[in-house]
Amino acid sequence: MTKVKLFAADSVVTLEENINYFLESEVEQVIGINYSTSAAAIPDGYGRAEAYCNFSALVHYEAKKADDNEKTGVAVEHVFS
């Protein structure tokens, strides 16, 4: 069964590390990865805007075969860090 997992982080390095760890531990086959970036200006108490970036990715994959005693997760998951 094809699954999708959402990853989000405030740095590209963190996003890449989270995805790589996931791919090595839980994925049998990667079907595709869709990356996205967004930015927002958040004003502080003095009226100065601080830029905030968010990096995200949707990983479409086939999961590794679970053991008979192991339960599989939901079809859509998310990771925020």
Q: What is the C-alpha radius of gyration, as a whole number of Å?
A: 16 Å
Q: What portion of residues belong to β-strands?
A: over 45%
Overall pLDDT score: 84
Helix content: 10-25%
Broad structural category = alpha+beta
The helix count comes to 1
Sheet with the most strands, sense and barrel status: 4 strands, mixed
Output the helix-strand order.
Answer: EHEEE
What order do the strands of the largest sheet run in, or round the barrel if closed? 2-3-1-4
The rounded distance between the terminal residues' Cα atoms is 27 Å
In one word, what is the shape? Answer: elongated
Count the strands?
4
- Low-confidence sequence ranges: none
Describe this structure in words.
This protein has 81 residues and is α+β, with helices and mostly antiparallel strands. Helices cover 19% and strands 56% of the residues. It has one helix spanning 12-26, and strands spanning 2-9, 27-43, 49-63, 76-80. It has a four-stranded mixed β-sheet with strand order 2-3-1-4, with helices on one face.
